[in-house]
Design brief:
The protein is an alpha+beta fold. The protein is 48% helix and 20% strand.
Length: 226
């Protein structure tokens, strides 16, 4: 029994050392054969992950190629589904900007899935999450490749909604957000009930006692008269 405890302690110690020396073991993520939800989202069982640094068209978004309009949200999801086919995918969290869905970089064998969907032209670089991240420059290069070769959404005009989602907020946008928050706070303050500084106090017992007292004026008149 003593030997078993010693072996167990050594094993746990080695696992702890390995997890500290190998950061990949400690990074949250998911692995397996996922289902495609959208052009930039995968589901591993009950866990949903989002491909970091990119924005794919959402369901219902319309792309235009010349005079032709098509559902590019559905097309992006189909493209991602074709790319991964029956391959095992491994995703690791790379940003805690948002926790659900988890922002991840995903690998398909030796290939970066985030880059593959960008180079296929079915996503844009998300400057909101990707800005200042080491992968951003590579992603922008992949996007340029797709754009120059008119792939995916770059066959024509990407949806304006997608462009707005992927764009980095400007100073004007940030100022508008600050103004909106300030207005909200002002309205919230106005809705709060204001305390009454000098509330009127009513002593009901005293008032009832006074109401039941006999009329002293009448008693005095009767006494003096009779």
């Amino acid at each position: 029994m003593k030997k078993l405890l010693i072996i167990l302690s050594l094993t746990l110690g080695l696992i702890a050392i390995e997890s500290r020396t190998n950061p990949a073991m400690a990074v949250p993520g998911a692995a397996g054969f996922p289902d495609v939800i959208e052009g930039d989202k995968l589901r591993f069982g009950n866990m949903i992950v989002e491909l970091f640094g990119i924005r794919a068209p959402k369901p219902g978004m319309i792309c235009r190629a010349g005079s032709v309009e098509f559902q590019c949200g559905a097309a992006a999801a189909q493209a991602l589904d074709r790319i991964i086919e029956n391959y095992a995918i491994k995703c690791q969290q790379v940003s805690d900007v948002q926790l659900f869905p988890m922002l991840t970089e995903c690998q398909m064998g030796q290939n970066d899935l985030n880059r593959l969907i960008l180079r296929a032209g079915w996503a844009m670089v998300d400057m909101v999450s990707c800005d200042s991240h080491p992968s951003c420059a590579t992603y922008l290069s992949d996007q340029k490749f797709a754009k120059d070769n008119k792939k995916g959404i770059w066959m024509g005009t990407p949806p304006s909604e997608l462009v707005a989602l992927a764009a980095k907020p400007t100073k004007h946008d940030l100022q508008d957000a600050d103004d909106a928050n300030a207005l909200k706070n002002m309205l919230d303050d106005a809705r709060e009930p204001q305390p009454v500084e000098n509330p009127i106090k009513i002593d009901l017992a005293s008032e009832l006692e006074k109401a039941n007292e006999p009329d002293r004026t009448l008693l005095s008149f009767l006494t003096n008269t009779f």
